[in-house]
Amino acid sequence: MSKIYRPQDKQNYIANADRYEKMKYRRTGKSGLLLPELSLGLWHNFGLNDDFENARNLLKCAFDNGITHFDLANNYGPPYGSAETTFGKILKKDFKKYRNELIISSKAGYDMWPGPYGDFGSKKYLVSSLDDSLKRMNLDYVDIFYHHRPDYETPLEETMVTLDLMVRQGKALYVGISNYQPERAAEAFKILKDLGTPCLIHQPRYSMMDRWVEDGLLDLIEKEGVGAIAFSPLAQGTLTDKYLNGFPEDSRAVKDGRYLKTAQINEKLSKIKKLNTIALERGQSLAQMAIAWILKDQRITSVLIGASKTAQILDSLKAIDNTEFSKEELEKIESVL
Hints:
Blueprint: E1 25-27, E2 34-36, E3 38-41, H1 52-64, E4 69-71, H2 82-95, E5 103-108, H3 123-137, E6 142-147, H4 156-168, E7 172-178, H5 182-195, E8 201-203, H6 217-224, E9 227-230, H7 252-255, H8 262-281, H9 286-295, E10 302-305, H10 310-317, H11 327-336
Parallel strand pairs: 3-4, 3-10, 4-5, 5-6, 6-7, 7-8, 8-9, 9-10
Antiparallel strand pairs: 1-2
Helix pairs in contact: 1-2, 3-4, 4-5, 8-11
């Protein structure tokens, strides 16, 4: 379904005219906003020391294939903020005329700058952070602004009132939350609804290897009419064929052990190999099946993918061709997991 990606003239990017023909879009909860089934996250590969032209090509490849949603956060890089700076430069060079076709999101909630006002969920931090994010990206507003993680020291009302303020000031069109457990999320939804700025979307970590959202959160968002976008669908790359035969030198587990360690992969290798066999029987790669497995649930609005190469985006796009699973396939997967 995806188009073969061919980088165009660096100075005159023109998006594929048929980019919307085969991408599938889902309604975000009970809102009016549709999101593509796949969204592109800029957590990695858009930092100061990453290849700028490669970053441009990743964004062009995504948009050429109907991926309209680019997901950032204030602390993406490294260093913090550099992914937004890179994105702002690419937006100006290549996507300025397509701004109305893009959903651009950012977040605040993790450590950003020194001192007591650069972290968590205070009004001081969130307002300052979004202002800085807009400057880095050269934007008047973001489409979605998230509180990135719950803060149990700051009153929840203060954090949610600040999200409401960002919408009323025109700095964000919608707001969301990320990494909130069901009970805290329910409280946040109620406060925002009472304020007149309903929560658009929740962004949780979700994969075959990490299924905490099934313990109440998915039921809650369905009940409240909130969308859901899953991050880390490939469990930091473990749900791919990358590690089936060892550890490639350019893999994340080898290059950057902060978030994924080789020992973690070795512990799961037996399961990964069995899941890979099931994927091949479905005519999919393991990565494609892992994404499709999340999208089988209609409560999920979109799945966030990351990529260091355009080929990875094109491979992930094939996942949406088959998101239905037979009862037998689901039973096989459950027996492995």
